[in-house]
Task: structure prediction
Amino acid sequence: MSFNDYLTAAKYMNEGLIRPEDQVEKSSLTPKEWMVRFLELIGNPQKAYPAIHIAGTSGKGSIATMIAHILKAAGLKVGLHTSPYLQSMTEKTWVNGRYIDSDDFTAIVNWLKPYIESFKTPEIPIHGLASLALSLEHFKRQEVDIAVIETGVGGRDDVTNVLNSVATVVGAIGFDHEKSLGNTLEEIARHKFGIAKKDVPLIFVDGEFTKIAEEVAAATGARLEPLYLNRSFERLTDDPQDNRFNYHGILSLNSLFPALDGSFQSVNAALAVSACEQAMLMLGQSIGEKAIRDGLWDARLPARLEVMKRRPRVILDGAHNPQKMAATLKVLCADRFRGKLIAVIGMLASKNAEAVADILAEYSKDAIVTAPIVYGKKALPPEELAAILEKRGVMVRVVPDPDEALENAIAYSHGDDRILVTGSLYLAGQLRNHYYALDKIVDNCTSWPR
Result:
């Protein structure tokens, strides 16, 4: 049976291929090893173009998006693959600012289906393989000049670690996915830096993980290209809402201004600029100042400090680990607004709710607790999350249905209050449907349809 439209094709890719967490069998191979075999089966589309590969616990989606926009501004045809998606599966596959359209998405799913059906077994992470393969094949058919690929989990064993890389980037590292990556930051960092490749620049910020980067580079032959705070780049102010910075790499550029909110984005932007410089150098080209400035200003991401409503202000941010939650709240509360901060929060059971609650309780004493609805993944029961928050002095109401939770928060709030939808990108994506409908996103190939 073939599929006729986006909805039926996406249902197959999701409900047809995602293995519920309690049904996942222990695998004899890593996701990367399975991906290598699957790509050989479909003709290795990833070999048709060079790629920039980005890993990290926090910020990798921002880094990847800024890289893609800078290279697009430089005149290249750029493919971008990020994960997870918020509302539409087409979001994972972007070429020069537009998501894959419904017809192309459906056509590639139909083309992939026989390969998927011949390959899948209970131990194979077939959803992850097929999702990435769809993007890689689309980029090949679109004849992109370069692809920008964000890792899924970790790096070393991730399905994305199969690329013809001309630059690799590792962003901020913290605790997340401990079950897969390990319980120490050193173990997690070794997974992230595992995307390093022989003779390929490995770009990161000098700091506590530099020794690990050096060890990985010595083992792989990667070329280290660290950035140094206050030497390679420096922030212009200490204001958490001011992300302007000066950059000193191949080019020296003053007062660069990313459009993505938050001072932490200056670090991500510096990594993005360096990645573009190094990748273009590997390709025998160069990048100009105008492309860098234009690309940083054009880059946008849904559900990252995204304001959806003004009074009361409704903000979507998918922060789901302590590092991301701290960065989000520091920016959001920097201007000492007059109202209260109301959190609409739901989390997956696999996330560290205790650590996230520690941070949230410092900024908010009002929370409406709900649960993201995600196929194949267990949500943390809202009653459990509510109990965790109550122990930290937060006033809690449990509203299991996410849509009702948001409506409850808006009804409860006043004009000067701020409502933060957070704890999960899946929750943010579901509630973003209140403002941008799924069919409009699919039809218009953008997260911001008019």
Remarks:
- Residues 102-119 form the longest helix (18 residues).
- The chain has two domains: 6-298, 306-444.
